[in-house]
Structures are given as C-alpha cells and as structure tokens.
Amino acid sequence: MNLVEVQFEPAGKVVLVAPGTTLLAASQAAGVEILTGCGRGMCGTDAVCIAAGAEGLQPASEPESSTLERMGLDPSFRLSCSARVERGTVRVQLGAF
User: Which residue intervals of the chain are DSSP H helices?
Assistant: First the structure.
C-alpha cells in the first residue's frame, strides 16, 4: 500500500497516512488542531483550503458538496471531516477560512 503525504501549512507538519484517511484524522495524527462540529460534512466548521494536490483526494460526497456550496466557498475548499486522501501529496492551508 502506498501511503499519502499530507502537509499542513503554516504549521509545517507532515504526516503519512493510508488512503481513505480523512484530512481531519490526518491532522490529528500530525498533532494539528482543526476545529470541527458535526463530523458529518454538514456544519462546515472544519473547512480547509487545499493549496496543492487536490487531485489526490477522493471526490466530495453529496453532503460535503452541498455544504461547501451553501457556504459559498470556491472549489479549493474541502471539509476536513469528509475529504479523504487517495494518493500522492496533499497540502492543506490552515486558517484560510
């Protein structure tokens, strides 16, 4: 199994995780705090900006897509509780929301 590298900026933390891991779980493994609410992709509390490597994420689920649209966020944003890594390197920009 190829691990996925997730980078958290500006914290400067990097973690390797298994494909299918949420960005929220990756942040916890890296010791990076992301505030979250419902954990189901509906409240939008944990929106983060994907600075690079968005193609390494699984497509957004319906609840996540609807929440991001309702919030008026552009496609570079994902919800950390819902966005799952798939491959490569993903760079998350914290504090952009």
Answer: 23-30, 62-71
